Amino acid sequence: MNWELIGHVFAAQPPLDVFSKPRHGNGAWAPAIRYHNGEFYIYYPDPDYGIYVVKAKNPAGPWSAPLLIKDAKGWIDPCPLWDDDGKAYLVNALAGSRAAMKSMLIVSRMSPDGARLLDGGALVFEGHAEDPTVEGPKFYKRNGYYYILRQPAG
Hints:
This protein is mainly β. It has 2 helices and 10 strands; from the N terminus they run αββββββαββββ. The strands form 3 sheets. Strands 1-2-3-4 form a 4-stranded antiparallel sheet, with no helix packed on it. It has a 4-stranded antiparallel sheet with strand order 5-6-7-8. The chain has a two-stranded antiparallel ribbon with strand order 9-10. Strand 5 (75-82) and strand 6 (88-94) form a beta hairpin. The chain is globular and about 40 Å long. The model has no long low-confidence stretch (mean pLDDT 92).
């Protein structure tokens, strides 16, 4: 496909005092973009600070200021799901370099507006025996079934 750059989520990543200089291997990692109720949402992790969300009516912006919805070291690769009944969920992986655990997926209940997690999450996949690292989960519902697709690394 022929992609065209239409904007940026932010000019500088918070916390500004930390990211005013290059930070190799740090900052925003794998995000998920979703469209829900007339708005675009991007959930992105910072493996040292937690999971953030930004939203906009137009993907070109302007985007809201980043909102930290989960203060947690090592929570990465978030992806939301808004269900037909109005409930919302977020799946994420764990970075072994920060959380001292990996090869796991967690699903948390999320507020319907996507602005906060409602619980500490439930472990839905523990893949140490099969996969040395699991990352990049994506959350879908199709024909009444829920799917979490994930990428084994390595």
